[in-house]
Amino acid sequence: MDTITVITFKPLTINSLTEIVPLLGYADSRTCDYTAAGLLMWADYFKYEYAIADNTLFIKGVDENDRSAAAFSMPIGAMPLRKSLRIVAEYCRANNTPLRFSAVPEDRLGDFYSLGACHIEELTDWADYLYDAESLATLPGNKYSKKRNHVNRFIAEHPGYTYQRLTPELTARVKEFYNGLSREKDLYDPTAAEERRQTFKMLDNYESLPFEGAVLSTPADGIVAFAIGEVIGDTLYVHIEKMRHDINGAGETINKMFAADMLDRHKIRYINREEDVGDEGLRKAKMSYHPAMLLKKYDLSVISNS
């Protein structure tokens, strides 16, 4: 019988990324939870800790519905998944902790059944929207005609506009722009407030993070939109996209130009624009870009870990 590897968790911080980032390419499911920003931006909120053993990453956090209960991410790395799952199960037995996993990609559920009887719950508000990269970069055909019209109107109404790749020299201006956007939602939505706080953190540390970004500006208004993402394998993950909603086409234009830029630079195949978190307006906006698929996720609790 194989000897079970013992894992020891430690807090996940920005300094942890030098260890973690090389392992992220092992994630095959293209969900945003297995990205540098997906981990770092929510490390405080979900109290993420991590361990690395045999070139495999283990993440421990708290359950989104019960912050006193531990929940684990799907391990990713060189180790076969069923073996790494047994290591998590042994850790939970040794620490008298219920065996619970959060945001398990739909295409990997079969491996989790090897742990025994499970209770599974779909996270309906946390499915990722995955798009064909070339479609977002070119907006082809009738179904994208409204998006093209918004982009064309923006270009016509703002001669001399500029699209720039985000550099450390631009982050101070981007922070000033973002600080000026409405923050009303932050007053009653803790998730929005945390996202805002972490966005500033990403900008503060942009130079040392594996991110790429873009800034859209006009001569009259200065910065009107920006985006930040990261490329892993064949997928661009758009983590942050903010724009002035009073300027027609600013959102559509940064979306299209960032997609085209990353497609040209990295030959990506897909763009993950992450979840709608149950926000109806966000859901409609994401659906209007015609996703190629929704990447469903599930919470999973092992009923008997013995």
Low-confidence runs (pLDDT<50, min 5 residues)?
none
Taking the sheet with the most strands, its summary is: 7 strands, mixed
The largest sheet has its strands arranged as: 9-10-11-12-13-8-14
The H/E string reads: EHHEEEEHEHEEHHEHHEEEHEHEE
Binned strand content: 25-35%
Radius of gyration: 20 Å
In whole angstroms, how far apart are the ends? 16 Å
Average pLDDT for all residues: 94
The total of helices stands at: 10
Total strands: 15
Indicate the structural class.
alpha+beta
* Share in helix: 25-40%
Shape verdict: elongated
Q: What does this 3D model show about the protein?
A:
With 306 residues, this protein is an alpha+beta fold. The chain has 10 helices and 15 strands. A 7-stranded mixed β-sheet has the order 9-10-11-12-13-8-14, with helices on both faces. Strands 1, 2, 3, 4 and 5 form a 5-stranded antiparallel β-sheet that branches. The longest helix is centred in the last third of the chain and has 17 residues. The protein is elongated and about 65 Å long.
Outline the fold blueprint.
Blueprint: E1 10-11, H1 17-20, H2 36-40, E2 49-53, E3 56-62, E4 70-72, E5 76-77, H3 81-94, E6 100-105, H4 109-112, E7 118-122, E8 128-132, H5 133-138, H6 145-157, E9 162-165, H7 171-180, H8 190-204, E10 212-218, E11 222-232, E12 235-243, H9 250-266, E13 270-272, H10 280-287, E14 293-295, E15 297-302
Parallel strand pairs: 12-13
Antiparallel strand pairs: 1-2, 2-3, 3-4, 3-5, 6-15, 7-15, 8-13, 8-14, 9-10, 10-11, 11-12
